[in-house]
Structure prediction request, 624 residues.
Amino acid sequence: MQAQAFLERISSYLGISSMVKEYGYQDILEQAAGIFSVKNRELEQYYFDGYQRAGEDVLYRYVLRSLCKNILFYDQVFDALLDEPSRFVFTRLVQYQVLPERSFLQRMVEEESNPCFPVSEDAVKSGEILVLESGISGMLEWKDRIKKEKPKLVISADKSFTDIWEIPKLLEYICPGYQVYLRCHERQGGLGTYCYGIWSGGKGSGMDDVREAGKDGASGGKGGTDGVGEARKGMGADSQKEAEERQERDVKEPPARRKQVVAMAPYERGWSNVELVKDCGLIPYLLYKNHGCDVTMVGARGGSYPYLEEYIKGVNMEFLPDGSQQAKLDYITRNAREIDCLILRGCYSTNVNVAISYKYYNPDGRIYMGLDANSSWMDRILWDEEWFIKMMDCCDVVATSCRAMQRHLNLKWPWKIEYIPNGYYCFHPKENNIPNYGKKENIILTVSRIGTPQKATDILLEAFAEIADEVPDWKLRLVGSVEPGFEPYLKNYWKQHPKLRDRICFVGSISDREQLFEEYLNAKIFALPSIYEGGTPNVVAEALNAGCAMAVSRFDAYEDATDNGKCGVDAKIGDMNGFAKALLRLCKDRQLNEMSKRAYWHGTLHFDMERIVARLNQMIFEGK
Prediction:
């Protein structure tokens, strides 16, 4: 992308949107750094005044990567804004996120400072108008009132750089039918951006109906590039003839070749059927479904694969003669030059030669390594050994599914570790996916391999027995196959607690994804007392998206699972009494319904597998 093209695109919202989709993070960073005459790395470290992200200062790279990852949400909100001033404010804010020149913001205040409707003190006191200076947290706190009373809303939209799209989307979820307007005003301490909401009786919200690009006013009106200042001077402009030639060339160019992605099984056994609906299979499937890649999962045959046709149709599976390293190397030797991205799982020694061979035959190919990490295992790895260094140096994107583990490894290792959580993907109609809190029952649910030492099912059972008399209207449901070695424990447990037989149900394994999600939807609490987990477990994402409050042990990702205590509670690993107190606290909490709503919104924002894979696709292919 040339500098002139960058300046042309940034002059309107639609230009920015198309630029993000076509070029992606790296190219935009390079152009923006050129405008400011600084190095890419310097601009990435630029501090956005006034914003914080998870308690940390917000840097330019966070903001631009977030914009690239969530551009479709930005599109939906922009298309739903109903007046020119709102589109103008939105465009200015997005321009500032792409090119952090403060004159974008100053011009926005100078030109658009009128409120959407009068906000008098009397109107606020009487409750017709609801002013929420705390932004999203205030919306969650007043969720029921907004839905019941449908007041006019004035919501602060500058607590986070994502507020300009997250607040309208959250409002649409809480109470569909609100029309949303954006305004910016001077206030004590600086600029203030506000979302104004007026309930329209369900007419004209349009949040989920993305209008055709190019409608009148869709350019963002008064967007302009005057914030760039003198940078644009002297660059000149393409002639009409050059523009026509460029357009003609673009038309004549053949369609791009579909990216070829291969996910190699890390184990000799190959892929299992259940892994096809976890991140192992969901990442390849969504790269195929949403991003146009041709995807193949490679490994030894590990049994039958009914999920292949039922849930991830379109993904290819290719079976090796066996699961040996030689069979994998033979496959790489034959196919490496045609593979654009090789997905590896786990920094196992069996992946070393696979990674090295792939890069030897295809130096331009990309490797994504999902670490499948937990602290116990990762701290035992001798990361400075030659084999490990060679493998990691071959990888282009390395990620863990746990924020705490990401922070830990980035301090310890010389390689950059990304955060790619295990998310939830809805295989059934989405209208069946929204939790109905009024229909949830007093159920504590767990979904796991029942009776394995890792999952600590005995902790859960003993904790429930401890609190059973204090919460007589609560039941416990355990979904999953029961390990044969756990049967003697269960036999003794029933002898000690015969009265609990009617309140504890071992459901067994559920293969139907819709039926399994119904279990989550019916439960109020999801319990996971694991000794350890490899990052954020898939069941956490499923439970959050079903609106379950969380009771977890302090495995590596417990803060991710509970949103730092906002939608759940935690206990020390292996502490039965502590876990019993955590369950009792939730069962008796009058705000449990509110906590469930926070869980759903936390899952929707941070554990949506489609958004996660969109971000990963951006990392792997740099938006190209």
About this structure: The chain has three domains: 3-212, 260-423, 430-607. Residues 52-56, 203-222, 229-244, 246-253 have pLDDT under 50 and may be disordered. The two ends are 12 Å apart (CA to CA).
